[in-house]
Amino acid sequence: MELSEEAATTAGDPAEPGTVRPGGRTARVRAAVLRAAGDTLAEQGFHQLDLAEIARRADVGKTTVYRRWGTVAGLVADLLTDMAEQSLPRTETGSLEEDLLANAELVRRTLTDPRQGALFKAVIAAATADGRTAEALHRFYEVRVAEWAPCVREAVERGELPEGTDAAEVVRAVSAPLYYRFLTTGEPLDTAAAGRAARAAVAAARAGAFVREPGHG
């Protein structure tokens, strides 16, 4: 989804990258390696990722990269953790429609960015065949949905939406048509498409389409 351009400044062990937050040289090494991994994914795809080549591109010792990330899947998992941490915060306008329009526009800008769009295509493709990459991608979207869900909960509190509306499902409904268009058609992902996605999600939510059934959630 929507991302900032700054690299993260954390590091982790090979088993679970990104869980420790030292600074200094360790942070700079992680930032350089993740930047190199992201560039390679965007330019060449998942299957061209090679830890030795990433180390060369980041100007980091191979031993450091192998010790810290262990595998390509571990590196991609850490890259997705970093992307989630660095994603832009939600917009709060006081209006559900305006909030979700802002969300849709951020998603659109991310997917149409030459580097970020290509990176997401590569990661999504990899997730279909690699379990660890899939888990990391799921965590990425869980973080992003959780960031925007309060916009929906606040709309329920204001009386804009029915009680029991599933906030996460509303947020997902905004992104879903944008990702579908991005991945399956050659049609432009423009501001009009973003606007339609947001307005459709709002209309469905107001009609009660996302109200949780008793016993679910």
The level of helicity is 55-70%
Overall morphology: elongated
Strand percentage lies at: under 5%
Query: What name does the CATH topology of the largest domain carry?
Result: Tetracycline Repressor, domain 2
Question: What is the level 1 CATH name of the largest domain?
Answer: Mainly Alpha
Regions with little confidence, pLDDT below 50 for 5+ residues: 1-22
The number of distinct structural domains comes to 2
Distance between the termini: 25 Å
Going by CATH, the homologous superfamily of the largest domain would be Tetracycline Repressor, domain 2
Question: How many distinct beta strands?
Answer: 0
Q: Compute the average pLDDT.
A: 86
Count of helical segments? Answer: 9
State Rg: 19 Å
Give the ordered list of helices and strands. HHHHHHHHH
CATH architecture type of the largest domain: Orthogonal Bundle
Largest sheet: none
**SS-based structural class?**
mainly alpha
InterPro entries: Homeodomain-like_sf, HTH-type_TetR-like_transc_reg, HTH_TetR, Tet_transcr_reg_TetR-rel_C_sf, TetR_C
Pfam families: TetR_C_11, TetR_N
Protein name: Transcriptional regulator, TetR family
Keywords: DNA-binding, Transcription, Transcription regulation
